[in-house]
Design goal:
1 helix; nine-stranded antiparallel beta sheet; Cyclophilin; globular; 126 residues; mainly beta
């Protein structure tokens, strides 16, 4: 089965204003309810905020934690229920509060190290 037809893995793209594009993959088994909700709302866009080794932006989604994690690996894509935000961790990090891990960045992770607060990030299907 090709990756494009595999509904358990969803390819997405982050378009980062002034920096370029990064690609990621969401894995449904990690947080199926959260991922389904977010995928239905794509494309999403927001203004970036930064915290430690994390870039995040608020999205119009309110839902609770799903399989919440308090530590994440480099490249993790997650949803932060406390703030209703999508997060990308560009280094191993400890989130401010538990996040619902959804997948990982597959290319362009280094771009997130250069994100400044206030720039626009758009997420869409790849």
């Amino acid at each position: 089965m090709s990756i494009e037809t595999d509904v358990s893995r969803i390819k997405i793209k982050f378009i980062i204003e002034g920096l370029g594009e990064a690609e990621g993959e969401l894995a449904r088994f990690l947080a199926p309810r959260t991922i389904d909700t977010i995928v239905r709302k794509l494309p999403l866009e927001g203004r970036a905020s930064t915290w430690k080794e994390e870039v995040y932006f608020e999205v119009p989604i309110k839902m609770g934690e799903e399989k919440g994690k308090s530590t994440v690996e480099e490249g993790t894509i997650a949803f932060w229920p406390m703030s209703g935000a999508l997060c990308v961790f560009y280094s191993k990090s400890q989130p401010y509060s538990p996040v619902s891990v959804m997948g990982k960045i597959t290319s362009g992770l280094e771009l997130f190290k250069h994100v400044k607060s206030g720039i626009t990030i758009k997420v869409q299907m790849a």
